[in-house]
Amino acid sequence: MKQMRFKLQTATFGSVETIEERDEHSRILAEVLDSGALDGQSREGVRDTLGQPKACIAPICAEQGFGRDDWYFEIGVNSNPEVIKQMPLVIASFNSDGKVSRLYTLTTHE
Q1: SS (H, E, C) the chain
Q2: How far apart are CA 43 and CA 35, in angstroms?
Q3: How far apart are CA 68 and CA 28, in angstroms?
Q4: pLDDT surpassing 90 at residue 35
């Protein structure tokens, strides 16, 4: 599981300049989450993997039933916003023990 989290970490901080690169980051996100590598992780573990979270204030957060205390991460650094309008993303909520209780992903690949 540690290797899967490292793979996601690498994708999260990697530059994305093309649609193909974005979709590869999306495939990595789907693969890692399908493996269960983030299930039950602590807030610290999620932060170690995905970096500094954003407050979940994007419209998609409310649409999916998440609130401001939940965490929002884009997977990849969009280096070409004129071409790439949507990045893959993951939203995480945590239970009272500080462990991941729910994950939502938006993937961009087919």
Answers
A1: CHHHHHHHHHHHHCEECCHHHHHHHHHHHHHHHHHCCCCCCEHHHHHHHHCCCEECCCHHHHHCCCCCCCEEEECCEECCCCCCCCCCEEEEEECCCCEEEEEEEECCCC
A2: 19
A3: 26
A4: yes
Amino acid at 65: G
Q: Which two tokens stand for residue 10?
A: 């690498």
- State CA 86 to chain mean position distance: 13
- CA 77 from chain centre, in angstroms, equals 12
Going along the chain from its start, the domains and CATH numbers come out as 2-106 (3.30.1450)
Q: What type of residue sits at position 53?
A: P
pLDDT band of residue 109 (cuts 50, 70, 90) is: confident
